[in-house]
Amino acid sequence: MQYGTYMGIYWIVKFAFFPLGLAIPFLEYIFLLLTIMVPFVGYYFTRIYRDKLCGGGISFGHAWTFTAFMYMFAALLTSVGHYIYFRFIDNSFVFNTYLVIIQEAEKAKIVGLGDSLKQFEETVKTLGNLRPIEIIMQLLSQNVIYGALLALPIAFFVKRRVPVTMEDNLEDKSEEDNNQEEDNKE
Prior knowledge:
Blueprint lengths: L1 H22 L1 H29 L6 H30 L3 H16 L5 H15 L3 H27 L7 H20 L1
Helix pairs in contact: 1-2, 1-3, 2-3, 2-6, 3-6, 4-5
């Protein structure tokens, strides 16, 4: 849950660059860069978990479960940030900006985009009519599903068998010898 909180804070900061990027295009690149970094941050947090809390070894299933739950907790925390933004701050800024972009593309009369622009415009208008809670539920479910899918390759790369040292082998053998001696005495 701790790493999910860190990831959720990261996602909230990342999301702040999305509407800002619609007004200042350079910030959109920062948003995209931070989005591309999400799996690497997830890998880093899962590796830290493996090394610090699991003794250096973790199975695929354990790593997948940890990573999927980390993304789920991050999605829950981020949905609070999304709700605050869409309920109190946005005032349809994102959707109106997309509609302006579509109208400018229509004015440019780019060949072959006519039907696609109409479909995109209808989609943006439909999304713009959603209540903030409906938008948040959509984003939350997407983040949980994408997190579960992203957890698969991360778990594959993070999995590692617990390293066995010579001292562990000696302790195991001495315990087995003691158990056998006790069994022989009986």
